[in-house]
Amino acid sequence: MLDVCGAGSPEELFSHLPEAARLHRPLDLPPGISEYEIVEYFTRRAEENGIGYTSFLGAGVYRHYRPVLVDTVVSRGEFLTSYTPYQAEISQGTLTAIFEFQTMICQLTGMDVANASMYDGSTAVPEAAMMAVRATGKGRVLVAKTVHPEYREVLRTYARNQGMPVEEFGYVDGAGTLDLEDLERKMDDFTGAVILQSPNFFGIVDQVKAAAEIAHKRGALLVVIFTEAVSLGILEPPADADIVAGELQSFAITPSYGGPYAGIIATKEKLIRQMPGRLVGQTTDSRGNRAFCLTLATREQHIRREKATSNICTNQALIALMATVFMSVYGKLGLRELAEQNLAKSHYLAGKLTPRFSGKFFNEFVAKVGSPDAVNKALLKKKIIGGLPLGRFYPELADCILICATEMSRKGDMDTVGQVVQPAAATEAAEVLA
User: Fold this and answer.
1) How many Å apart are CA 426 and CA 119, to the nearest integer?
2) For position 49, what pLDDT does the model report?
3) What secondary structure letter does DSSP report for 220?
4) 112 and 250: one domain?
C-alpha cells in the first residue's frame, strides 16, 4: 500500500495531519480473540440483558411467536439483497410479494387500496393526517389523547413546519374510551382530519362508527390507527374510516430495540391519488401473462415536487415481506384463533388485577397497582418484566401500569403477577389510610 501511495512509511503517509491530532501509541483495545470466544462473550452479555425473562410489556411493541418459515423465506438471496422494485422486468418476485401484501392489508382493514408499506406506524400517522388535509383542503387536525403518546409526538413534529395545527381531545375517565362530547365541541369547519386509535393506547376497543359520524358531519376525514395488528383477526374492520394507518410489528417482526418495523396506510379508492408511497398493480406482459408493475409512485424521485404526496416515504419491502409470510402462514382462521388466544389470556390476567377502565379491551389493559416502580422491581426479581408505568404520559394515571398478555404468556407467570401486584396495592392502600 505504501509503495502504491508513494510513501516510505506510515508516518510519511499521515504527515499531512496536524501533529496534535496524531496518536503516537497503539489503540486502547484488547487483543484479538477467536470466533467461539466472541460468541461466548456476547451470549453472556445477552443473558445479562434479560434472556429467559417473561415480558408483559405492550404499548405498541408486542411479544408474539414468529413462525420459523418467516426467516426461511426472507433470508432467500433474491429477497434479502433486493433494494427496490424500480425495474419491473427484473423484480417480479418483489412486486408480487408487495401486491399480495397490499391485498391482505385491504382484507384486514376493510379499505379499497393499501400502499406498499410505510417506515413504521408512528410515521404513517402524520402521513395519513397530511393526506386528509390535502384531500379536504382543511388544515386543522384533531387527535385523541388515547392515541399512542409517541405517535402523537411524531405527528406534532411533522405538523410544526407544515402549518398544520394539531389539537387533542380527551377520553372518558371511567371507560377509557373517546370523549365524543369533547370531540363535538372541538370540531369546526376548518378541521380536515380526526385521528383515533382502536384498540387505543389503553388497550380498549373504541367508538369508530360514532367518531366517523361526528367527523363526516363537519366535512372532515376519519383516520383510524392501530398498533396491535393481531386485533384485526377478531375485531370488525374499521370500514367507517376514510384512512387506516398502523404498525405491523406484531406480524412476525422482532422488537429489535425499536425497529426496523413496517407501517401501512390503506384508504378508500376515491383518495388513492392522495396516498403517499407506492402502489403495485397487476397487468399483463407483452405475451399476455400476468405481471406486476408500479402503478402509482408519488415521491419526488418520480414526479414533479409540487405534486409529490411525500418526500421521504418509500416502503419497507423486506419487513413487509415478513408480515406477508406471517399472514400467509396463519390465514384468516389462524389469525382469528391467534386473536382469541390473546383475548382469553389478557382477560385471565385482568381477573388477577384491578383494571382501571371499564371499556372492552383486547390483549392489554390499564391496571391500578399503587406504585408501578415498586411492583416492577418486585416482578424483576422473579424474572418477569412488568407493565409500562403510565405517569410519564398521563399524570392522572401515575398509580397505573399498562400491561399486556399475548399467546406467549404462561398461566403460571400471570398468576405470579397477580400475587405480586395485589399485595403491593393493598399495602399502599393501608399506608394511605393510616
Assistant:
1) 44
2) 73
3) P
4) yes
In this structure, the answer to whether residues 266 and 293 fall within a common structural domain is: yes
Strands 243-247, 263-267: pairing kind: antiparallel
Q: Are 106 and 265 in contact (CB under 8 A)?
A: no
**How far is it, in rounded angstroms, from Cα 421 to Cα 185?**
39
Handedness of CA 318, 324, 326, 329 (dihedral sign): negative
Any idea of the CA torsion for 295, 132, 317, 404, to the nearest 10 degrees?
-150
| pLDDT (tens digit per residue) in 365-390 | 999 999 999 999 999 999 999 999 99
Condensed to tens digits (0 to 9), the pLDDT of residues 256-314 reads 888 899 999 999 999 998 998 888 999 998 899 999 988 887 665 666 666 777 655 56
Tell me the pLDDT tens digit for each residue of 150-184.
Answer: 999 999 999 998 889 999 999 999 999 999 999 99
Asked whether residue 403 is assigned to any structural domain, the reply reads yes
DSSP 230: G
User: Could you tell me if 252 and 339 lie in one domain?
Assistant: no
| CA–CA separation, 124 and 129 (whole Å) | 9
- CATH assignment of the domain containing 386: 3.90.1150.10
In this structure, of 15-19, 155-159, 430-434, the range with the lowest mean pLDDT score is: 430-434
DSSP string across 66-99: --HHHHHHHTSHHHHS-----SGGG-HHHHHHHH
Residue 315 contacts residue 116 (beta carbons within 8 Å): yes
If you ran DSSP here, which 8-state letter would residue 32 be given? P
Closest CA to 150 of 262, 258, 238, 243: 258
Mark whether 318 and 190 lie in a shared domain. yes
Phi-psi region of 99 (alpha: psi -120 to 50; beta: other; left: phi over 0): alpha
